[in-house]
């Protein structure tokens, strides 16, 4: 279980780092190249860049939690992520009509996994830190 929790912190930290850099420095590329993002226009460079900066902040918390690996920091990182990821999942589940059924299913599965994996790590934190 300890390895699972730390792996989630590392993987999600790396993911947030890459995502944050992409959003901050290449916002139109993110909007234009990621399937499903343009289902809910309009494009806003300001919003994408701000979200990129916030995502980088979350990456810092994840990476610190993975390095330090104590209960409080791990819980804060996972909860901070889930506070955004859960509403994101429900928003998209309510807006799946943007493209093909295949992309809608893929989006729903990816977003559900992106909530369930850290939620499972959060449930394990108490036992392993």
UniProtKB/TrEMBL annotation:
Highest taxon in the source lineage: Bacteria
Membrane-spanning parts: 7-31, 51-67, 72-91, 103-125
Keywords in alphabetical order: Membrane, Transmembrane, Transmembrane helix
Protein name in the entry: DUF4345 domain-containing protein
Native organism: Kribbella capetownensis
